[in-house]
């Protein structure tokens, strides 16, 4: 199954760009972010794969490296298969004005909308072409991205002390 | 922050500011009883018609992901209990399965432990569905089912408290085993409960399921087509009510579920169309019946093939130090509310994960509300929200 998917993706997008992640218990395909939307569209619409269910999107921080990753867990309801897509996001710095940018897949699976908002909110990943990229769990005026490993608590929020005595 | 990171928020502010003179913005929640917790829905209404729903989450955000990055797996189990606090056993079961699979020890767990896990999970599933059914009744004006459901749920709470020492947040299922074996006499008490509860469920059916007022309020309301449900990542009773037979207990066949007999109820549109509020309610009622079947089978096997032995230690396999190496793993399991997933990403030589993300079913099920809520009456929005059966502990994590 995974060989077939890999072959198909490599034929479509080039052997260099799509790779299988070794040493994992679940099938994982590494995809460059330029091809992400096309790969997802193909995986959803191809009648032999039909990954119509996006279960989860996770953003991972590899501090101290300047590197992030996005992990998409897909499932196919008709074929009862699972697949993981991984997008690596190497960065030059961790500046707040230089967020990693990834194209949004919310046009393919609507559930990605809220998952991507969560990744933006907590990990600071900017999704281009997202219809409504606001913070979701934290207040709209929160500063910083708390799930990053180098996040430092602010002194106070609207006059409320954050760290206790 | 750069200007463009803030544009969506500006757009939202503009949208609220530009509401027309015939329209009104209403805040439903965060302290509204029908939002089942601290959910705030911002409604743009025209008279009684809801034009737009903007959910605001996060009032119950307790940083589960961040906490999990600073402690080992055993210490994280009590935190998983607090995700969907109405079904704590199911949460920890799913989490523990993930860790066990990463360690490669899922086949070594004794059958008795697996049966006990399934037994307590199904008891908890009934408790969770009873809340869903009872509070759904109260949402649309039926008070009695609420009291009946809570009365019967209390029996389950007492039983689980007897086993684990805690009423709602159990910390009972551990990596590689259990906190304790079942107390002596638990199996008999389960049997008594099933015997007591079956007629009560029929009573409840008579009161609510075929109640004409209830049907008027729920049938053909909030119809969720199957393709929309899948696209929005809905799972559990939400997805099954739309007519799709998708139950991870059968699909993945984890734990001892392949050895147990039960059916998967799906929505059939008996009172209206497939995927309406009544179907979602009915699927839950039917699932309670299936869970009772599972409990009976589990108890029978726990009293015969896998009976209690004096030297049986449910903690024998609990690892002293968990070292999973460098891995990434996504585990999923069927919670009362849908697919609960945990995504693990672990490091070498440490029992603290690099990243742990919980995928709450309520979070995804709730995301379909703006789609379902467009153009309905305000009163119907309450009916739709109640039928989704959210737990805010899991939406906000």
Automatic annotation (TrEMBL), chain A:
Superkingdom as given in the UniProt entry: Bacteria
PROSITE patterns, per database record: COMPLEX1_30K
Keywords, in A-Z order: Cell membrane, Membrane, NAD, Quinone, Translocase, Transport
Domain NADH:ubiquinone oxidoreductase 30kDa subunit, residue spans: 29-153
GO molecular function, one term: NADH dehydrogenase (ubiquinone) activity
Subunit structure, interactors included: NDH-1 is composed of 14 different subunits. Subunits NuoB, C, D, E, F, and G constitute the peripheral sector of the complex.
Family per similarity comment: Belongs to the complex I 30 kDa subunit family.
Protein name stated in the entry: NADH-quinone oxidoreductase subunit C
The gene coding this protein: nuoC
Automatic annotation (TrEMBL), chain B:
Domain NADH-quinone oxidoreductase subunit D, residue spans: 139-397
Keywords, in A-Z order: Cell membrane, Membrane, NAD, Quinone, Translocase, Transport
EC class: translocase
Origin species: Sphingobacterium alimentarium
Subunit structure: NDH-1 is composed of 14 different subunits. Subunits NuoB, C, D, E, F, and G constitute the peripheral sector of the complex.
GO terms under cellular component: plasma membrane
A Pfam family recorded for this sequence: Complex1_49kDa
GO molecular function, one term: NADH dehydrogenase (quinone) (non-electrogenic) activity
Function statement: NDH-1 shuttles electrons from NADH, via FMN and iron-sulfur (Fe-S) centers, to quinones in the respiratory chain. The immediate electron acceptor for the enzyme in this species is believed to be a menaquinone. Couples the redox reaction to proton translocation (for every two electrons transferred, four hydrogen ions are translocated across the cytoplasmic membrane), and thus conserves the redox energy in a proton gradient.
Gene3D superfamilies, per database record: Cytochrome-c3 Hydrogenase, chain B
Membrane-protein topology: Peripheral membrane protein
Protein name (database record): NADH-quinone oxidoreductase subunit D
InterPro entries, A to Z: NADH_Q_OxRdtase_suD (IPR001135), NDH1_su_D/H (IPR022885), NiFe-Hase_large (IPR029014)
Cell location: Cell membrane
Gene coding for it: nuoD
HAMAP family (UniProt xref): NDH1_NuoD (MF_01358)
EC number annotated for this UniProt entry: 7.1.1.-
Similarity comment: family membership: Belongs to the complex I 49 kDa subunit family.
Catalytic activity: a quinone + NADH + 5 H(+)(in) = a quinol + NAD(+) + 4 H(+)(out)
């Amino acid at each position: 199954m995974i060989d077939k998917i890999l072959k198909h993706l490599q034929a479509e997008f080039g052997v260099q760009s799509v790779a299988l992640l070794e040493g994992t218990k679940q099938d994982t395909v590494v995809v460059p972010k330029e091809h992400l939307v096309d790969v997802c569209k193909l995986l959803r619409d191809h009648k032999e794969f039909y990954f119509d269910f996006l279960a989860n999107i996770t953003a991972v921080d590899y501090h101290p490296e300047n590197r992030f990753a996005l992990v998409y867990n897909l499932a196919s309801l008709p074929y009862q298969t699972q697949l993981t897509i991984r997008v690596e996001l190497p960065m030059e710095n961790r500046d707040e004005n230089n967020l990693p940018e990834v194209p949004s897949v919310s046009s393919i699976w609507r559930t990605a909308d809220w998952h991507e908002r969560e990744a933006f909110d907590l990990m600071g990943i900017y999704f281009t072409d997202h219809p409504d990229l606001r913070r979701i769990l934290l207040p709209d005026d929160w500063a910083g991205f708390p799930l990053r490993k180098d996040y430092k608590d602010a002194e106070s929020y609207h006059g409320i002390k954050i760290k206790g005595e | 922050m750069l200007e463009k990171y803030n544009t969506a928020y500006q757009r939202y502010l503009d949208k609220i500011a530009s509401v027309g003179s015939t329209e009104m913005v209403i805040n439903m929640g965060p302290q509204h009883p029908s939002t089942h917790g601290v959910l705030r829905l911002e409604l743009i209404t025209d008279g009684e018609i809801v034009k737009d729903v903007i959910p605001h989450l996060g009032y119950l955000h307790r940083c589960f992901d961040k906490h999990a990055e600073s402690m080992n797996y055993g210490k994280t189990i009590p935190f998983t209990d607090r995700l969907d606090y109405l079904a704590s056993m199911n949460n920890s079961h799913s989490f523990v399965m993930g860790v066990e699979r990463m360690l490669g020890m899922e086949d070594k767990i004794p059958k008795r432990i697996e049966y006990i896990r399934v037994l307590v999970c199904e008891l908890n599933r009934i408790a969770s569905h009873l809340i869903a059914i009872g509070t759904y009744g109260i949402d649309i004006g039926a008070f009695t089912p609420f009291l009946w459901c809570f009365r019967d749920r209390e029996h389950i709470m007492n039983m689980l408290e007897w086993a684990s020492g805690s009423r709602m947040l159990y910390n009972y299922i551990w990596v590689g085993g259990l906190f304790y074996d079942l107390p002596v006499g638990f199996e008999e008490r389960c049997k008594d409960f099933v015997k007591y509860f079956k007629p009560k469920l029929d009573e409840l059916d008579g009161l609510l399921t075929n109640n004409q007022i209830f049907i008027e309020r729920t049938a053909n309301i909030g119809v969720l087509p199957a393709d929309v449900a899948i696209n929005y990542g809905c799972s559990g009773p939400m997805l099954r009510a739309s007519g799709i037979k998708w139950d991870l207990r059968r699909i993945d066949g984890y734990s001892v579920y392949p050895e147990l007999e039960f059916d998967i109820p799906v929505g059939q549109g008996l009172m209206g169309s497939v995927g309406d509020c009544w179907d979602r309610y009915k699927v839950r009622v039917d699932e309670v019946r299936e869970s009772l079947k599972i409990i009976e089978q589990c108890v029978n096997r726990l009293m015969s093939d896998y009976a209690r032995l004096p030297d049986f230690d449910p903690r024998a396999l609990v690892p002293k130090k968990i070292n999973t190496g460098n891995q990434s793993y996504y585990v999923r399991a069927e919670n009362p509310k849908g697919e609960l997933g945990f995504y693990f990403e672990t490091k070498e030589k440490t029992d603290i994960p690099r990243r742990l993300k919980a995928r709450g079913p309520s979070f995804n099920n709730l995301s379909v509300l703006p789609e379902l809520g467009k153009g309905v009456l305000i009163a119907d929005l309450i009916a739709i929200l109640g039928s989704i059966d959210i737990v805010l502990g899991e939406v906000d994590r």
